[in-house]
Target: G-protein coupled receptors family 1 profile domain-containing protein
Amino acid sequence: LTLAAIALDRYHSIMDCLRYSSRCTMWRTSAVVLWIWLQALATSCPPLLGWSSIRYVAPMYTCAIDWAASPGYTAFAAVLSYLLPALVILFCYAKISSTGVPLQNHHGVTRLFMVIFAFLLCWTPYISVALVQATETAISGQSTLIPSSAVTFSYWLVLLNSDLNPLLYALLSKRFQNALQGLRAKVRAHVGSMVGNSRQINKEGDDSRCNDPRTPTTSRPCPPSSSESLTSDNSKYSSSIFTVGTDLQGHLCEVCHPGNISSHQYAGGKKQTNKIQPQD
Model:
């Protein structure tokens, strides 16, 4: 039923695109979705109310509707759940194909063809088996024409259809692939931020242990601080504008008079004044 509704939507968008917005409104779309669920409910409830029955079907290895128990309900369910939607789907896409417009120009049409083909391929054997069993039971009173292996195979095809649809959408839909790539990028970014935060926390923990006077001297040596590394080799860092020991006045003078700067550094506990020569 959902595939039939999608086929009708594609039919109106391609065959009558100028009036598509006025026909396929939000209210009508919501009404169609509500109708699909109500019809599915009405089709599935009769066996619970006494029309047909549910029993353990050995070839299916599960409890299911006994199609041979009530030929009337089998025909009712097959017509509403399969035959009518299949006719709507085939009509819509036959009209679309007759236009001669390349289908690849319409978003999602090729993918939908594959989904519908998989649906017909997987469900037709199962519905056919159900109809044959119901007809044979109505005529002869028993169902022996369909072998158990055919019942098992048709039921497995129905289950396979639920596995094929996600694969078809994932392999053929660019929109789905882009959304999946975006989700993957978000997950990677989130994991990367978590790893970075954990490393930062570990680094802060190491720094706190190094600055703690109660830390034994036999522990792992701490890396030199930025001020120690800068003051250990004045010639190496003479090209930098600011040093760790420079006060605020030195900063301001350097910004205003870059050619005549005095930076105040401390080495061995004594204040030293070094002339910084301007560089090319």
About this structure: The CA atoms of residues 210 and 221 lie 8 Å apart.
